[in-house]
């Protein structure tokens, strides 16, 4: 049985275009975006209040594209997109999307890396994506320079995104690195670029973003997200939000309601990239960017900028629910809705916060990097706590049992399998993973779900467990296989398995089971060795991958006859212990 969006969900107003780059869709009123003259300032720095108007952003994209064309020798109609890949390694800035859209208007690809990455992790992504230039920010420059050198990116192809002095400690940037602002200045004097000439279907074939996800198993892989994938999801989100927007019409506003949203989550992750940076600004909203999470600054920013909508991840929602006294110190009366996604939010937490703030709409969304983000989300008029909401327009879903049969009843768990124009092109250079994940236009999510009817009679998706190996720490991905491979490089480790263990603050944290190698003497203390193994991870991996769940020594790692680690068995045993 195929589940469809509920009746109240409007259909897409038009087919997602397949012959234009994202930049054209986002900056051109012809494609239904909120009128540029009337839109709020798209990206504003939450530390200084500085930002550019929507019209200025459009001009800056154009000027930056001209400068990049001269610097890098890239043209909108020359070469393939794979010759035109940039890496972005930065905290959130007001120019990140200007940069992405400039690269898109040159028919290039943007590969954003997590700002918490270690040198080795960044290097891996730069090499795997084939990045030809790297955009970073001052605090990350030393690490970026090293990683670029080891990835064949020359020093004169490292550029700096601007951050305010509040975020750099007043340090000024070394003159040998050009800034995006300097490029934009240069671009103003350069001739206009030729217009891109895409064939019908190019937008659905060409990769726009290369994000990284481990999918259902193995190491992180490059996810090829096409221009049309992002355009589709933006249109799907905007359309599903329309009934809400129409219900909160501002008196006297000819163009409909706009909101101020918080841009706290990392722009390198698909959630922020598509939902916050694209869908929000397409609707004419303003995003207040913060470079990192600090509880007081977060609350202060909501008050200062009168933020209406808070797209968050569960750990922050938990913090809010548990710290009523801290929240009470600020005027948060502007808040209309809290939106969480990327990991499960307990119904109890949602209820607790809802009781404290009855007027807030507490909403949840579900999706994956592989679906360019949203598959389902809660509508304001159909809140069903604990649910991930209803399917958004043009999404179809099936629940499939382990035996491969389609489940037709409510409340029966099975793997969620989805179809949507936002389902990505596939993983880069990985036919095996593509075969396992993408089948006949359907995508296997690796998540266990049930369908239930809300009191209003709409079908809702509940995510009840995860079948795939993935660990979610504060909404960020940790691939067990990546940590296991790294642990095996330690001389004291002969075998390793990594599983998620529940954690109140982070949702889940990684725990390792280690088989000691024969070189480890009896006199070596387990406590010291455990610390050493944890340090081995801390020195080479981003903080969210650290073994906060501890290390346990075992005689053997349980495996299937074909050699697959039985992580589920370990997880169940660990929960019982
Ligand atoms: P990735 N509840 C439970 N698990 C979730 C949820 C949720 N609401 N959302 C995502 N996940 C898990 O690629 C699930 O296991 O994309 C899924 O397969 O980093 C995995 O996270 C995908 O991880 C939004 C806002 C989706 C954000 C997102 C997050 C996309 C995260 C929809 O509206």
Q: Provide the low-confidence segments as ranges.
A: none
Instruction: Name the shape in a single word.
Output: globular
Largest sheet: 5 strands, parallel
- In whole angstroms, how far apart are the ends? 39 Å
Compute the average pLDDT.
96
Helical residue percent band: 25-40%
Separate helix tally: 18
Small-molecule binders here are: ligand AYL
Beta strand count: 26
Biggest sheet strand order reads 3-2-4-5-6
Structural class, from helix and strand content?
A: alpha/beta
Percent of sequence in beta strands: 15-25%
Which value, in Å, is the CA radius of gyration? 23 Å
Describe this structure in words.
This protein is of the alpha/beta class and 577 residues long. Helix content is 32%, strand content 23%. It has a five-stranded parallel β-sheet, sandwiched between helices. A five-stranded mixed β-sheet has the order 11-12-13-14-15. The model has no long low-confidence stretch (mean pLDDT 96). The protein binds ligand AYL. Ligand AYL binds next to helix 10, strand 13, strand 14, strand 20 and strand 21.
Short summary:
With 577 residues, the chain is α/β, with parallel strands linked by helices. It has 18 helices and 26 strands. The protein is globular and about 70 Å long.
């Amino acid at each position: 049985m195929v589940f469809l969006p509920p009746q109240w969900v409007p259909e897409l107003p038009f087919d997602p275009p397949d012959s234009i780059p994202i930049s054209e869709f986002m900056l051109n009123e012809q494609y239904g975006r909120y009128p540029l003259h009337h839109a709020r300032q798209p990206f504003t720095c939450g530390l200084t209040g500085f930002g550019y108007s929507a019209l200025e952003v459009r001009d800056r994209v154009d000027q930056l594209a001209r400068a990049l064309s001269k610097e890098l020798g890239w043209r909108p109609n020359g070469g393939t997109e794979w010759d035109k890949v940039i890496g972005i390694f930065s905290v959130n800035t007001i120019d990140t999307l200007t940069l992405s859209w400039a690269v898109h208007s040159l028919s290039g690809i943007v590969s954003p890396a997590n700002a918490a990455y270690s040198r080795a992790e960044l290097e891996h992504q730069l090499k795997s994506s084939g990045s030809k230039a790297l955009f970073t920010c001052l605090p990350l420059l030393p690490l970026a320079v090293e990683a670029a050198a080891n990835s064949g990116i020359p020093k004169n192809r490292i550029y700096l995104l601007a951050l305010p002095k509040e975020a750099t400690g007043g340090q000024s940037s070394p003159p040998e690195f050009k800034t995006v602002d300097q490029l934009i200045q240069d671009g103003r004097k350069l001739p206009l670029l030729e217009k891109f000439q895409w064939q019908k279907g190019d937008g659905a074939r060409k990769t726009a973003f290369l994000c990284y996800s481990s999918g259902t198993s193995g190491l992180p892989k490059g996810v090829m997200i096409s221009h049309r994938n992002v355009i589709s999801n933006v249109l799907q989100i905007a359309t599903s939000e329309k009934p809400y927007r129409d219900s909160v019409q501002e008196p006297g506003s000819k163009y409909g309601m706009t909101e101020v949203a918080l841009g706290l989550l990392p722009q390198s992750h698909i959630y922020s990239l598509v939902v916050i940076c694209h869908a929000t600004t397409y609707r004419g909203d303003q995003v207040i960017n913060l470079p990192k999470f600090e509880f007081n600054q977060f609350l202060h920013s909501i008050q200062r900028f009168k933020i209406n909508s808070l797209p968050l991840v569960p750990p922050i929602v938990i913090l809010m629910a548990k710290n009523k006294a801290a929240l009470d110190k600020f005027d948060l009366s502007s808040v209309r809705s809290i939106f969480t996604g990327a990991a499960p939010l307990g119904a109890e937490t949602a209820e607790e916060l809802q009781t404290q703030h009855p007027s807030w709409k507490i909403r949840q969304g579900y999706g994956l990097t592989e679906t360019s983000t949203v598959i389902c989300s809660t509508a304001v008029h159909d809140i069903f706590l604990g649910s991930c909401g209803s399917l958004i327009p043009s999404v179809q879903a099936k629940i499939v049992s382990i035996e491969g049969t389609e489940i037709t009843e409510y409340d029966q768990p099975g793997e969620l399998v989805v179809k949507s124009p936002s389902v990505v092109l596939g993983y880069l250079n990985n036919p095996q993973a593509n075969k396992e994940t993408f089948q006949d236009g359907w995508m296997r999510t690796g998540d266990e779900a049930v369908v239930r009817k809300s009191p209003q009679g709409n079908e809702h998706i509940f995510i009840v467990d995860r079948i795939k190996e993935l660990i979610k720490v504060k909404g960020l991905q940790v691939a067990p296989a990546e940590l296991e491979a790294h642990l095996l490089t330690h001389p004291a480790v002969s075998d390793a398995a990594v599983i998620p263990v529940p954690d109140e603050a982070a949702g889940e944290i990684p725990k390792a089971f280690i088989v000691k190698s024969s070189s480890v003497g009896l006199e070596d203390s387990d406590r010291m060795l455990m610390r050493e193994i944890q340090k081995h991870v801390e020195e080479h991996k981003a903080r969210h991958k650290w073994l906060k769940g501890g290390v346990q020594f075992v005689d053997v790692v349980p495996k299937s006859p074909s050699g697959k680690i039985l992580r589920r068995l370990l997880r169940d045993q660990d929960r019982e212990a």
